[in-house]
Each structure stands twice: as structure tokens, then as C-alpha cells.
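Fold it.
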Amino acid sequence: MQPTQQVIHFYDINCQYGQNLHRWIDTNPLISILQVIHIQPGIGIWHVHGHCTECFTRYTLNFIPRVGNVDGEIMETLWSSLNIVSPSTCKMVTPH
């Protein structure tokens, strides 16, 4: 009996991406996934709130056993310091 290795895969749209991942891998002759690997899709807490209720309960870190929380993604943590340049981009429209 071989133990199963759980792999947590985070992606902003894992509810859609994860549905097709195994099909894509199965149809590609160059890659494969070992049978002992279980890929558990997840969506970070910041992005999962923009999805439907079913996505929250299925993909949030709070409900995946043996998974800890992460401190956001790089862009989200930089937004507060990047806000200073936002006035220079708000006037970029077609006439300019």
C-alpha cells in the first residue's frame, strides 16, 4: 500500500482551472502525474471572496485539512505603496 501525497495548488481561478487540469495532463504525451499524488486545488482568501459561495466552501484555506494560511500574494501586499502612482494612470483614456 502506497501513501498518497497531497499537493496544494493555489490559483486565482482554480474553480475552473482545476476542473480541466487532469484532462489536459492525460491528453499530453509528455507529462504525467503519479497515481500517489492528489492535487488539491485552492484559492487564496483575497480572491475567493469574489467567487460564488460554493467556491468559498470548496477552495478556501479555512476548509482544506492540514493547510495553513498564507500572507496574500505579492501584488496585493504592494498595493498600498503603489497607490502613490495611481493618479498618473487615471487620466489615460482614448483621447490622450
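The longest helix spans residues 14-26.
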